[in-house]
Amino acid sequence: MPLKTLDDVKRMVATTAQWFVLGRCKPALEVFRDGLSALGVLGAAKEHPDSLRPLFCDLPEKLTAERMEELFQAKTSPAGSSEAVTESLVLSRGSDFLQDVEDEDIDITLSDILFFTTGCRVLPQCEMPVTIEFLHELPSRFPTANTCSSILRPPVVHQAYESFKADLTFGILNARVRVADLAAKDSVVATAAAHDPDNYLLKVTSDGVIELGEPVTDDYRCSFPRGSSGLKGFFFVRENIIDMSYKLDKKKTPFVPPGSVRHLCWELQKKRNNIYKVALI
Question: InterPro entries of this UniProt entry (predicted)?
């Protein structure tokens, strides 16, 4: 195809992109389609797309206190024993704790609790029960967990709910590792909103995570109260999806919360005019 005009170039780019995304994997897609058709799955998906979407798409289930309680399966002592009485009290306090977290009365989220217990930020598609064991033999003020086996061990030594809540919160917060804490000035991180699967690249200009001394509204009209922590920087804007080129946009300065930072990126290869070649994340 001779390239004589700018429109010819655009058509060539569109054709190349279509082949890169669809054409080269067409045989594999056809085999996949035939496999789904063999058992009637493809027809059912076309007829009931909304019902079958959760089977094919990763749609994180919203975490609630009630849903979290459904996951927990307590390993209790024999009824009537002093340990069973203590465990019943701990489970009751645990229910109150989950409700306080859902009501945002505590500086952690239900996702933090799930991550502390299982290593997962969201619920997987398959059922994942969590076993609760109690620290009778090793009394401690703070919770422990085994993420490989999905075991949570809450403390049993507290006499009051407030101290129970404070120590649970402290234990979970101090076990949480934030990717944002590993970021430094001039590093590049990938950020995403809570329910947004797309990543946005940010070149960090602050000296790591900073705390705001006063309320701030950034150039993207996002407001943050005094005391908020996060990273400042500039976003990259995708220029060319084929070779993953990005342009650094220095027109607006965003402020992103630590929890939105998902990945640290490899060192970027600078090309020209603030265009960078970005490795896939």
Answer: HECT_dom (IPR000569), Hect_E3_ubiquitin_ligase (IPR035983)
Cα dihedral 179→182→185→191 (10° resolution): -10
Question: With bands split at pLDDT 50, 70 and 90, how would you rate the model's confidence at 89?
Answer: very high
| pLDDT > 50? residue 13 | yes
Contact yes or no for 128/118 (Cβ under 8 A): yes
What single letter denotes the amino acid at residue 97? F
CA atoms of 128 and 74, how far apart (whole Å): 14
What six digits make up the tokens of 39?
């058992």
Residue pLDDT, tens place only, 65-79: 999 999 999 999 998
Whether residue 195 is predicted with pLDDT greater than 60 in this model: the reply is no
Q: How far apart are CA 180 and CA 167, in angstroms?
A: 24
Own/partner long-range contacts of 220-227 (Cβ < 8 Å, ≥24 apart):
220/252, 220/254, 222/254, 222/255, 224/255, 224/257
Tokens for 151? 């075991």
Q: Whole-structure pTM over 0.90, yes or no?
A: no
C-alpha R_g of the chain: 25
Give the phi and the psi of residue 114 in degrees, each rounded to 5.
-65, -40
Q: What angle do CA 245, 247, 251 make, to 5 degrees?
A: 165
Q: H-helix or E-strand containing 216?
A: strand 216-217
Gap between the terminal Cα atoms of the chain: 33
Q: How many helices (H) and strands (E) are present in the chain, helices listed first? A: 8, 15
User: Which ranges of the chain does DSSP label H, i.e. alpha helix?
Assistant: 6-21, 26-38, 41-47, 49-56, 65-71, 82-102, 110-118, 161-175
Output the six-digit token pair for 55: 């089977």
